[in-house]
Amino acid sequence: MEQIRILVVGCGNMGASHAAAYHKLAGFEIVGLVSRGDSKHRVNTMLEAAYPTFDHYDDALSQTEPDAVCIATYPDTHEEYALKAFSAGAHVFIEKPLADSVVGAERVVQAAKESGKKLVIGYILRYHPSWIKFIEIGKTLGNPLVFRMNLNQQSQGYMWDVHRNLMKSLSPIVDCGVHYIDVMCQMTEARPIRVSAIGARLTDDIPLDNYNYGQLQIHFDDGSVGWYEAGWGPMISETAFFVKDVIGPKGAVSIVANKAGAKGQSDSVEAHTQTESLRVHYADIDSNNKFIRPDEWIDLTDEPSHQELCDREQLHFLQSIREDLDLSKSMEDAVNSLRIAFACDESVKTGGMVKL
Questions:
Q1: Closest residue by Cα to residue 191 from 70, 52, 53, 340
Q2: Nearest 5°: CA angle at 15, between 10 and 20?
């Protein structure tokens, strides 16, 4: 089958990783790199390539006439760029979050359906064998479940530039939170019914109406509850910045990332997807209330790097196009996690609980 001619829009962290995947995978041919600054040239240098470069998306889209578009720009352009791609007859891979509003996300999904083209959203943890196993074990722990998760990032240098730019359109609990809300929803398969959240603006370097620290709480209709915490900036503490825990009546499962959880790793993109091992705790006790079974350690042999995860995402995108996979459930899940995240954002700003 012919290669998929793909246009890469946005050449920062994720765009560069996706471009590297397209560069190496036999099923893709890059027809252009788009960015407002020099990042597109850095990608060409990194890949030792000479792909056509463009400053403006509209020009690139009309001149290259791609089969597919990879959108890895800041969230405030996601909806606009995706709708234009579908109108041009292209499939779309888009980084999370799908859009910078729930209505926008729904419009993108509707456009995908109407165009008959594929829409894959960059929920990278869905392609990680360790997270897949984490979710699988969590489902065996009974109901209700308790989710404890965070990803606080003591960002500096380039990553603080990235985070400040992100906060021009979204808060940390929306941008990062959708990943972990998605994990919670996959584990419990229950309906979220209400959320509450808190937030604090710890720097004048971000918009007045945004905050760089937030914590959300979700209540599900099966009694499950969960919290997620995210903070960005040079003032953020690195103590316990990496917590990934699920507790149920039958025990608990935790991601234990000794290397990824080490000092100086909190703003490392590479470290965010590392799991290293799972610790499974069994709640079974005897007549003396002593544990019957020792904790089980699952050391994970298939531990892909961040780049390898991006490669797997793009292989899925390729398979979706070539095999005409039904992506309706994953699109619905992406809108659902975004709806929950924005409800949490509303809770921060209003100070009240939000019903879903």
A1: 340
A2: 135
pLDDT digits (tens, 9 = 90+) for 128-170: 999 999 999 999 999 999 999 999 999 999 999 999 999 998 9
User: d(Cα 101, Cα 104) in Å, to the nearest integer?
Assistant: 5
The answer to whether residues 223 and 230 touch, using CB atoms and an 8 Å cutoff, is no
Q: How far apart are CA 174 and CA 333, in angstroms?
A: 15
334 phi and psi angles, rounded to 5 deg: -65, -40
CA distance 91 to 160: 32
Express each pLDDT in 75-109 by its tens digit. 999 999 999 999 999 999 999 999 999 999 999 99
Interatomic CA distance for residues 317 and 262, integer angstroms = 33
Q: What SS3 state is found at 11?
A: coil
**Angle in degrees, 0-180, between the axes of helices 177-188 and 129-138, rounded to the nearest 10:** 40
CA within 13 Å, CB half, 328: 4
Spatial strand order of the sheet with 53-54 comes to 53-54, 28-34, 4-9, 68-71, 91-95, 119-122
CA 75, 76, 78, 79 torsion-angle sign:
positive
pLDDT averaged over every residue in the chain: 94
- The dihedrals phi and psi of 141, each to the nearest 5 degrees, come to -90, 0
DSSP class per residue in 250-294: TEEEEEE-TTTTSTT-TT-HHHHT---EEEEEE--B-TTS-BSS-
Directed axis angle between helix 57-64 and helix 78-87, to 10°? 20
Between CA 265 and CA 258 the distance in angstroms is 11
Spatial contact of 83 and 111, defined as CB atoms under 8 Å apart: yes
